[in-house]
Design a protein that fits this description.
The chain is mainly alpha-helical. The protein folds into 2 domains: about 100 residues, no CATH class; about 60 residues. Helix content is about 60%, strand content about 5%. The chain is built from 7 helices and 2 strands. α1 runs antiparallel to α5.
């Protein structure tokens, strides 16, 4: 997503005026007089899905991430409205480039590997399992470097696709002709 739509700093989303130019987000904004609540609704979507969100970067389990954000942003029992679900699908539609999808898949794979290694117990290990664990651990440095490299490529793509002639930037919801 284009930084002109929002910024994520210290786990908080700052919404820019351009974000409200997107009809589904404008509908959320206009759906309530309480603009702190509207900000939380939009923040929920951004923090749940944007590749640079600390929740996405640090919480591999998407269901747990969703529950944690709901608990932090809303009263108990809150359920996403149709407007929020539509804005969420719009956000995903325009932000999930091929590189973002690859980054998400790699992060998910690392989460699965991490869970597997964490859940191993000494009593359940036979020699084959020990060798598998050691092989996995010896490859982790390469995996981390690859993940870091892919993250940098996604950030670069984010900047490059938001540039137009004259140095201006286009929003993510303005589709360049090369993507149509």
């Amino acid at each position: 997503m284009n930084s002109k739509l929002f910024d994520i700093q210290a786990g908080k989303v700052t919404i820019h005026a351009d974000m409200l130019g997107v009809p589904s987000f404008k509908a959320i904004w206009n759906s309530t007089e309480d603009k702190d609540y509207a900000t939380n609704l939009i923040s929920y979507i951004v923090l749940k899905h944007h590749y640079s969100s600390p929740y996405v970067e640090n919480i591999g389990d998407e269901k747990y991430r969703d529950e944690k954000l709901k608990k932090e942003l809303f009263p108990e029992g809150w359920v996403a409205s149709e407007e929020v679900l539509y804005a969420e699908s719009t956000f995903l539609e325009f932000s999930n480039t091929l590189l973002v999808q690859l980054l998400d898949s790699c992060r998910h794979s690392v989460y699965i590997i991490s869970t597997y290694l964490r859940d191993m117990t000494v009593s359940s290990m036979d020699m084959r399992t020990v060798k598998e664990a050691m092989a996995a651990m010896s490859s982790l440095d390469k995996v981390v470097r690859s993940l870091d490299s892919l993250t940098k490529q996604v950030r670069r793509e984010d900047v490059e696709t938001s540039r137009v002639q004259g140095g201006s930037e286009i929003g993510h919801f303005e589709i360049p002709k090369s993507r149509q």
